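Appendix B. Extra example for self-study. Work through it before the problem class; the solution is given directly after the inputs so you can check yourself.
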Amino acid sequence: MSSGQAIFTDGPGTAPRRPGLFSRMWKQRADYLYVLPAIIVMLIVIGYPIYYTIDLSFSRTPTTLKLSDKTFVGLQNYVAILTSPNFWKVTWQTLVWTVLSTIFAFGLGLGAALSLHREFAGRAFMRGLLLIPWVISAVAASYVWKWLYHSDFGAIGALMVQIGVTDEPINFIDNTRTSLYALIVVNVWKEFSFAMIMLMAGLQTVPESLLRAAQVDGANAWQRFWHVTWPHLSGVSMVTILLLVVQNFNSFIIPFVMTGGGPAGSTHIWITHIYEIAFQRQNWGAGAAYAVILFILMMILGIFYVRALTRGDATRAGT
Amino acid sequence: MSSMTHTEQLSVRSRRQIDGWRWTGRIFLAILLIFTVVPIAWMFITSLKTGFAAMQYPPQWWPAAPTLENYTRLLDTRDSVGQDFLRYFFNSMYVSVLTTILAILVAVPAAYAFSRFSFPGRTFLFFAVLMRNMFPAVVFLVPLFILMRVLGLVNTHGSLILTYLTFGLPLAIWLLKGFYDNIPIQLEQAARIDGATRFQAFFFIVMPLSTPGIIATAIYSFIGAWNEYIYAYTFLTRQDQMTLPVGIQRFFSENATDWPGLMAATFMMSVPVVVLFLVLQKYFVRALTEGAVKS
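Solution. Structure tokens for the complete assembly:
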């Protein structure tokens, strides 16, 4: 990235003294043309919504969303949501959802990646099968699982009765105690292979010679994993876990399609709750205030994410 | 036994250990495969039943009289269900293909610039682009809806394409940048010395070498657009414009859900992305390997 830079700038040779920011920007103006389309699209579709959401969160807006009738109310929306009992209930459910989904998706993904790492007949086929849940739409997945969990004709309930686990079918998603966990199973099913594919890619960076050397030195399988494989996986694991956390925290479709947050709000997580407040109750201010808090949380996670992601780049670029 | 050297003993012991771990791995994989495949198999089995056969307890684990009527109805242009399904299918196809083409046109130059140039603000802009991944779609719904109203795009597929473009771009740019980082800069330098302009060097030397990355980006964009639900659910109110994930709700109509019909529709909806992905998965895996795990 550093060598041969000069040849790629259209201007004359670099000056001996480091030129000012604007003259450098002007000199390399052609470079911006390459990123300009991306930046414009991102600015319109991301910059503006963020500004708008912050604006809404400090205002009371009529349910018709008529912007001219908006009034400034300061922190009122924030106070209202933070003192509402729903806030803590939904936050706790979001935590359970995010933490359990991430742990199980990562664990299953790691196990699958390690099991599939060795070459064997049908390996590509198995990898393909395992990836299907990740590839199909979350809407399709939600409907299929809703049908599997169906209280009267669901395959899971019937199977449990047939093998003698229970006497009659359990109603998983209409029960406030089991509903959230039933949905977590669906979520793990949907996303574990994302962790698998990331970790499979990571496993390719583990030098075979190092593993063999450890084996000759008498390290057992666990020791080889812990002392040789895992250190090589820590970078990609970090990125994978962060992406899973973000993705799970931002989940919407599975709870929305399967239960709509019910029964009795037991499967509401942050995003479905925001949707309900804003779009079903038309309380735009409160919804926006939730969103702003979410922005801040995500920004914090995002800093970790970008750091984990660009670590390789930074060391190479020498910054 | 006494004639055995230390290394031989070691290899016997470690082989036994390896066998043990390998069997653990196989059993784990078998269970995981069951967990993965059974729901999909059940979707397919249900789609082969009549509405009556699906509503039985205990369920018919394999339909007593398998039928393709759910599929023929979906594909029947004279049936109203079929007409709607096919319209949703083509809407989805149209939106996804256009999104994919635009995503590549926008992401390729951007990724190349992030990989090669060192213009001021490069790092900041790259971070800003990546940050998009962190925000949930719901948060953008209201402002984007208003934006689309301003742009006159409400109830058009353009609103979806513009939106999908942005949430596909960060990963696309990041994947492609990984590819460009791995293409030796000397190739372009040689071309420049031979008189090629910077754009020619990019277009004729670098682009062809990054084809696997472009294919991976295309798969990613297509799948993302094909499966998207929230914006399609909010931006489009006209029946005839709906895409598949929203459209298949019609199977929940009136008082009873047509489960076999719904399962047939979800199956048909999954076929294009699954086939596309399975055929091209090696590019996708390679792109992730080069993008995510280099260094």
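Self-check: Chain B has two domains: 6-47, 77-292. If your reasoning did not lead you there, revisit section 3.
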